[in-house]
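Quick log. Single chain, no ligands specified.
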Amino acid sequence: MWIQRTTFPEEGDLVLCTVTNIQHNSVFVTIHEYNRQGMIPISEIAPGRIRNIRDYVIEGKIVTCKILNVNAERGYIDLSLRRVSESQRRQKGDEVKQELRAEKIVELTAHALKIDPKQLYAKLTTKLLKSYFYMYQAFDDVLAETINLKDFVSKEEAEMLLKQIKDKIKPKELIVAGDVAITIWEEGGLEIVRATLLNAKKVSDKLKIIYLGGGKYRLIIKGIDYKEIEKILKDASEVILTQIKKAKGKAEYERVKNISLEHANA
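-> predicted structure:
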């Protein structure tokens, strides 16, 4: 990868490393994104007793490690191989693949504009990596229209980048949600609530409503256009608040700040 961070990794970070030197009680590695050296003690290679360290690692092998300790003053970095789960290893591999795809997009853009790819990359990352850990994360937000590339590069570069991003990256499915707590004192309150929720669902077939219990309902919308799904959520919640108020009931709305795909499918 082109990315080279000037800082030190933080404890708990997952990093990609190349094994450079194997000693009797330790393994030395180069940490890719930081271009720094680190050490894996023999106790952090694998669980249990290790008779031959080379049964687990060889020079030149690329491994995913977890940062254990960082002494920036002395330049020491201790890592662990055994504390990385298989799912974490796959996750790091996926992140690297996505970042390589983002770098390829920059390279294709630069070639189309007949400029130096590394210069365009540096121009982008100097600003974007202040807010994002990886550039592909910023490109996801470009597709979601939450950031504008013209704020980071020239108009011509932004337009060509956007074209390449749309060609090479499938838009990520976005999720927004809001909770509505409803109280009705009038007779036939259950029917009023049911009719209100049915009217809210008429706003869009993308809207899903689930009952959370205790008179509380969750509105969930999934899609790739952030502005569209936010408008659906706003319109649907307003339908509920307005109609419950007309029915002399009480409705309180709260935007769900963080909802995972797993919860959205529940």
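The first strand starts at residue 14 and ends at 22.
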